[in-house]
Amino acid sequence: MAGLALGYVYKEILGGGDTWSYHEITLNVLQETTQSPHDYIRFIFQNQVGDSLEIFREDSNSFFFVKLLSFLYLLTDNSYWWSSVYLSLFSFWGCWYLFLRIEERFQDFRIPAFIAFLFFPSIVFWTSGVSKDSLVMGAMCFLFGFTVQLINAQGVKEKLYYGLLFALASWLFWKVKFFLAVPAIVFLLAYLLVEFLANRFEVLNSLLRKAMLWVGMMVLGAVGAYFLQSDFTPDDLGFHVMLNYSKISAKTSPDLPQIVFPHLNASFTSILWHAPQAVVQMLVRPFIWESAPLFYKLIAVENLVILFIILMALVEIIKNRKMKPLPAFWWVLLCFFLTGAVLVALPTPNFGSLNRYRAPLLAIFLAIALAQGPWQRWWHRLTKGSKSA
């Protein structure tokens, strides 16, 4: 239903948007590539197509998404709505798979994960339908779920099986959201290596020593990437952040609420300085009192709920004078959220776009924040009282 609603909202209220642009482009591509089976095969495997895809680079995630969408259109007789259903089901499948793994291994996160990944309105809405975010959510959740399975796999065959699934999910995540897939894959691979070493060496069994080893791997990897002149140096990061920030700022109406960083520049120190502000604003802005259209007001109402969840978690932590225990897996996800939030929020000052882009990351944050709050204690007290009555 969410995917169908997204298509309707974009068509009737928002004037089309990316989702209907992909529909038109895919129809044009199929006109050019379905004259014979050989034409379509050349398009899929050799990127040979006419003028329909000139606006996308061959290595871009949009080019890849049109390929996948064209296959769904062939299956559904060019139906936008049925393709929307299939993509929504893939996103839901990934979320459900991750929820089942969490239910098995992390009981305290069962209800928070259910609410965050399968129930929270904007997350469900923006990760459904004919959208790259449907693939992002599904691939990301499968990647997390396969990581949990790999940690607990017994025997070589089971490890190879989940290792292959991990690789497939990594590949799909990489193809549709490269800049989020890189930190996710690196963080999870390091986590898997740390857990492997901890099983071999008893001295590494404590959470603190695992964390120190994991951070050490991240530092060495960052230094190595810098000296090898890869695409992930601080200079490259700053360049792309500023390029996108400037482009989106120029297109955003000054009458709309937006993230404004007048002193942001491409230096790594500037990015680090502005990163906390960007993450906080991504979570809680626009505020309800800011002058804005109805769409922004709806975002603001949901942000009030998020702010309330954060405040309740902070009150619980202060009351108990400590955080509730967070397993190593969830610490890794928290680090991924913080990294991904910076990569999404800094280059995206427009809250309309940011509300969509933050959706997969927001699910991680909400699951952790809800687990830190008093909700589960209240729920157990309520259910216990109901049984007693």
UniProtKB/TrEMBL annotation:
The chain crosses the membrane at residues 80-99, 111-129, 135-152, 159-174, 180-199, 211-228, 294-315, 327-345, 357-375. It comes from the Bacteria. Signal peptide: none annotated. Keywords: Membrane, Transmembrane, Transmembrane helix. This is Glycosyltransferase RgtA/B/C/D-like domain-containing protein. It comes from Nibribacter koreensis.
